[in-house]
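Re: the 282-residue chain
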Amino acid sequence: MDEAQSTAPVAAGGVGGSGTRLIAELLLRLGYYIGGDLNESSDNLWFTLLFKRRDILSADERELGRCIELFERRMRGRAVFDNDELALVRALAANERPTHSVAWLQERVDSFTEFDPDNRGGRAWGWKEPNTHIVIDRLLPALPAMKYVHLIRNGLDMAYSDNQKQARFWGPFFVGAAEMPITPRYSLKYWCRAHRRLLDLQRAWPDRILLLDYDALCREPGPHLAALLSFLGVVPEPRRIRALADLVRPPPSIGRYRAGGLDAFDPQDVEFVAEMGFAVHA
C-alpha cells in the first residue's frame, strides 16, 4: 500500500505510552520512510540521539538548526557529513544521559553516519518519536512543510501507566519542580501541562498540528482515520480506511484509571481531562 507521494515530513509524538506506535504502523503502510534505526516501538532513534536531551531546551537557534538540518538530510537519504558535522554528532554520545548509556548513544552515531540502502531519497518520509512534542514549537518553523500528529490518551489512564519515562525525564521542567515525584498525581500534572501547551501550539498552527484522540480512534476507527488521511493529504477512500483499520487494536488498559479512582488527583487536573473530552467518572 504505497500511497504517500509528498516529500514533506510528517512527525508523530505523544506522552509516552499514548499508542504512538500505531501512527508509525500507519505511516509505514502508507509508504513513508520512517528511519533506518528504529527500536521495537518504531521510535526513530536518530531523533532520540539528536533531540532527546535536557540541554535541548536551552539550545540556541544555531545549535538546534544544525541538528534539524542534519536530521532532515539523513532522513532524505544523504549520509555524507563533513568533519564539523561528524564532530557535532559524536559529541552527543560523549556523555551518558538519564535514559541512555554512552555505548547506546555511540551505536546511534554509527547508524546515523552509515549509508542506509533502504532509503535513497525522493520518497515520502516522517518519523515517530514520542518526545517530538518537546521541541515541536521549534521544529515547525524550521521545517515549513512539516505536519505533526499528536496522539492523546486519557490522562487518567496515563497517570496509572507503568510507562513514566517521559514524566520522569521532562516533568520537572513542565511542572516547575526541581524534583517531581513519579506518582499518579504528578504524572497527571505533567500530562495536563504538556497538553495545554499543545492546544496553544495547535491554535498557532491549526493546519499543521493534528491532535488525535486515541480512545476515540479505537472506538470508531473510520472517521478518525479519514481525518488523519485528509490531514496528511491522502485521499480517504473507503478501501484505504478499511485496510488501515485492521491495524487498530484497542488495548485492555483503556479505562484502567477506574481501578485506582480519582482521589489521588488535583480536581483542576481532572477537570481539564474532562474538557479534553475524556471520561473521568470512577
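The first helix runs from residue 20 to 29.
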